[in-house]
């Protein structure tokens, strides 16, 4: 067996409530899944779901700090329900989709909004706006066997204690089951994948020194500080 050229990178993992770790394979994100946010971004809320990705090592856990990323003057927050996939599947039906879910967490899809705007204008990919280092803080995963599959519940986000985003999971245009089914028509989902399911309205810029705190009723919290 050949030796590695260099030591392989440590696996990325998210803590599970009551013990254990969830090893992350891929990070998928649903774009524009709350009507109010779609309207604030100037887009058509009737569009079908679409997806973009972040690297697994963009995940930040345990309340660790988030370094302000380079090449942006407009770093914005997006609080989201995170779905942790625990069972492989392709072309999954909506009816079977929730059987593939291990659990849920609160997470942040951090976005370099100015880079995203420039990419949109030029018709270019979003990767450098979404898939940068430390761009996905995620809280503890709660198993679905304990909390069930939330379809409603308050989702909120604050900066330095001041509320910036509020909404309800019931306002999602595409449900968790529908998003899983649709995505699995494009790629095979595997245990270890996570899906970030979109954000409600109220996104805005954050700066160094800001403390970011998100909460989803019945699911959990996420917290980080911009350094």
Supply the CATH superfamily name.
Fumarylacetoacetase-like, C-terminal domain
The number of distinct β-strands equals: 16
Measured on Cα atoms, how large is the radius of gyration?
A: 17 Å
The chain-level structural class is: alpha+beta
Helical content band: 10-25%
Describe the strand arrangement of the main beta sheet, using strand numbers.
Answer: 4-3-14-7-8-11
Briefly, what CATH class? Alpha Beta
> What's the overall average pLDDT, rounded?
93
Tell me the β content: 25-35%
Distance between the termini: 43 Å
Q: How many discrete structural domains?
A: 1
CATH topology: Fumarylacetoacetate hydrolase, domain 2
Topology order in helix (H) and strand (E) letters: EEEHEEEEEEHHEEHEEHEEE
Q: What count of helical segments does DSSP give?
A: 5
Structural summary, described in words:
The chain is an alpha+beta fold and 227 residues long. It has one domain (13-225): Fumarylacetoacetase-like, C-terminal domain (Fumarylacetoacetate hydrolase, domain 2), CATH 3.90.850. Helices cover 14% and strands 30% of the residues. The chain is built from 5 helices and 16 strands. The chain has helices spanning 35-40, 113-122, 127-130, 144-147, 176-183; strands at 13-15, 21-23, 27-31, 50-54, 59-60, 75-76, 79-85, 101-108, 111-112, 136-137, 142-143, 154-159, 162-168, 194-196, 211-216, 220-225. The chain has a 6-stranded mixed beta sheet. A hairpin with a 3-residue loop joins strand 15 and strand 16 (220-225). The chain is globular, with a radius of gyration of 17 Å. The protein starts with 12 loop residues before the first strand and ends with a strand. The mean pLDDT is 93.
